[in-house]
Amino acid sequence: MSVSINVDVQQRAELRSDRRPMPQRTPQLNETFVIDDSEPEGSRMGTGFAIDTSGIWLTAAHVTRRCLRVGLIQDGDVRPVRRVTQSLRDDVTLLSGALNAPDALPVSTAEPGPGTIAYHMGFPEGEPAVITSQYLGSTVIRHQNHNESQLVWAEGRRMPEFDGELGGASGGPVVSANGEVVGVISASTPRRGRILTVAPDALTSIIAAGRVAPRRMTPVSIRNAQHALDRFTRYLQSGVIREVYCDVE
């Protein structure tokens, strides 16, 4: 039986100026999260990552929602995305016709097992960072018009250390120790140290809906937190992970 608990859940991109049921193989957490779907006014920033070298990227749907134009940041400039395929039930968006990348992240087709260690990569408050976490189980996200199944992670170490919120990391990849993406950052509960992410089956569904066929990349395993930070730095330098810009004006 699921118990509804209203908690401080934050699901937002960083302001520029300032689903389907989960397979029952992992623990179903006995709680429900409620998300305010209203977006802050003004252009905003999130995180995106390449899943193919030919300009195919993923980010969070709430980063691209109600945007007139969407682009990726390259050397301080906004490079436009030609096509945006946004899920209506999961917090994930497929970007195609975007910047090419020299490498890409492989997307897992399987959900993580209980206790899985993973690394959340993105731009919280506009600054690059990696957050370690441990997988707890799945939960139900209550939106205004529908419910969504997501994965819940217990937040661990932040690298570099910071005390701010995770806004701006939305859309970033959740990379497991075997080097595969097992989720997309969706929301966080700062008071409880939880991070909510889109499940792997939602990622494969949006890829299919976008009618793209990313080439399967060879995953690169991650040994520990420092190795994850080193890997993230390489992704930043090569342009595999970038900031996403939403223009609402």
UniProtKB/TrEMBL annotation:
Bias kind Basic and acidic residues: ranges: 11-21
Gene3D superfamilies from the UniProt entry: Trypsin-like serine proteases
Matching Pfam families: Trypsin_2
Superkingdom to which the source organism belongs: Bacteria
InterPro entries referenced in this protein's UniProt entry, alphabetically: Peptidase_S1_PA, Peptidase_S1_PA_chymotrypsin
Region entry Disordered, spans: 1-25
Descriptive protein name: Trypsin-like peptidase domain-containing protein
Organism in which the protein naturally occurs: Sphingomonas lacunae
